[in-house]
Write a structure and sequence with these properties.
It is a single chain. This protein is mainly alpha-helical. The protein has 16 helices and three strands. A three-stranded mixed beta sheet has the order 1-2-3, with no helix packed on it. A hairpin with a 6-residue loop joins strand 2 and strand 3. It is globular.
Length: 414
């Protein structure tokens, strides 16, 4: 009985410890992430109302290169994943660098997201807290995951997805359940804190609900298969573009300036700024059933040029843009309800590029509700299977095969 009481006391102490530390991390990341999100909204709005800002994109790129000379690690999301896998060092200076550089990218017209940057921001803050607390390597990794969950939740307002994503994205096929309580507390605290700062989560209500009959089931399966192909295309274009930029233009200053001029040229040739910034307005239109046929391809190109030449930002919102616009296009062509097809496309392509099926399902529920669950279940599951071992993050590890109960322990393809 005494031994049982001692075990209970230890577990209660451990719970209190993680509730406190993850709560503090969530609040801290929620404040920083909320201010970061508001900054992105303000500068994006200013750019839209002042189109001449786009012509200063090369200057913004040069400023970003100058800032990142202070970071010998050239940190990014891959560095955060490595921090959890192998205890790689994640410097605190990564936080202000990613905030300022991403704000500059959005302010002057770069095509990038913000939630991917939030993973880096949160991972940096969480890892630093763990270092200050002198945690062992295992608890230090949990603190990095807490920060990732908090950053994602603060900017996107989806705490359930944020909690599971941080546990799922590290090693595909196996989740670190020891981080469940810390990540969930951090995600909830960050969401509430960000709302106090003025950031509200995303939600896309459906105009109506479609029944899953045999015809819609077949179309959903076909959509999922196509979304897997789109996710592979997206990953390959991003990785190849970055590789070619580094190969053909080794000088970082010339590389980012040339990319900026290319973005300006493409924008002027198309006569629209719809592919600049994150593109949440286009996502909303796609969910309503409105889409331009080539939108998903153009967003892939704009994002690849932006991130490949050296601008900073996330890949997640561009992924949702690509998925939503492709899904809506598929729906309009085949007769599947376009809004539903856009929603399935968003989460299916997200699943394909991140290899996180559980997070993708939860994201669909938090963004669109539970009414269309059968469609999401089909599309996400098939996209996960058919997307192979491609992924946005080359540091991500595929521990178990997608087709067999087999341990493979391989990196995603680049």
């Amino acid at each position: 009985m005494k031994k049982y009481a001692e075990i209970c006391v230890k577990r209660i102490c451990l719970l209190v410890r993680w509730l406190t530390l993850s709560g503090i991390t969530g609040v801290a990341v929620g404040i920083v992430g909320g201010l970061f999100g508001r900054s992105i909204t303000v500068v994006s709005g200013f750019r839209v109302s002042h189109p001449w800002m786009l012509y200063l994109l090369p200057a913004a790129g040069l400023a970003i290169v100058a800032m990142y000379r202070m970071d010998p690690y050239q940190t990014g999301t891959n560095r955060v994943l490595e921090g959890i896998q192998s205890n790689a060092y994640i410097p605190l200076r990564m936080a202000p660098l990613i905030v300022i550089s991403t704000v500059l990218t959005h302010a002057f017209g770069g095509s990038a997201g913000r939630e991917g940057a939030a993973l880096q921001l949160g991972g940096s803050i969480g890892g630093t807290f763990g270092k200050w607390m002198k945690f062992d390597e295992y608890d230090h990794k949990i603190m990095i995951m807490c920060g990732m969950s908090a950053g994602f939740s603060a900017l996107f307002g989806t705490p359930l997805t944020a909690t599971v994503f941080a546990m799922e994205v590290i090693s595909v096929g196996m989740m670190q359940y020891a981080a469940l309580v810390p990540c969930s507390v951090a995600a909830l605290a960050a969401k509430q804190t960000a709302e106090l700062v003025g950031i509200r989560g995303e939600h896309f209500p459906f105009p109506s609900v479609t029944e899953l009959d045999w015809k819609n089931a077949v179309l959903t399966i076909l959509l999922a298969f196509c979304c897997a192909a789109v996710s592979i295309l997206f990953c390959e274009v991003l990785h190849v573009t970055e590789h070619l930029y580094k190969k053909w233009i080794p000088n970082k200053w010339i590389r980012i300036a040339s990319g900026a001029f290319l973005i300006i040229l493409m924008t002027k040739l198309l006569g629209t700024d719809a592919y600049l910034g994150a593109g949440m307005d286009v996502i909303e239109l796609a969910v309503k059933g409105e889409v331009i046929a080539a939108a998903f391809l153009l967003k892939i190109v704009f994002t690849a040029v932006t991130l490949g030449c050296g601008f900073r930002g996330g890949e997640i919102v561009p992924t949702l843009f690509v998925g939503a616009t492709f899904g809506c296009l598929f729906g309009r062509i085949t007769g599947l309800f376009p809004s539903l097809a856009a929603a399935c496309g968003m989460t299916s392509v997200f699943c394909g590029v991140t290899n996180c099926p559980i997070s993708s399902l939860l994201l669909s529920f938090e963004l669109f509700g539970f009414e269309c669950m059968p469609f999401f279940l089909l599309s996400v599951g098939i996209s996960y299977l058919e997307s192979g071992y491609y992924g946005l993050y080359h540091s991500q590890r595929i521990l178990y095969s997608k087709t067999k109960l087999q341990y493979i322990n391989a990196h995603t393809k680049e």
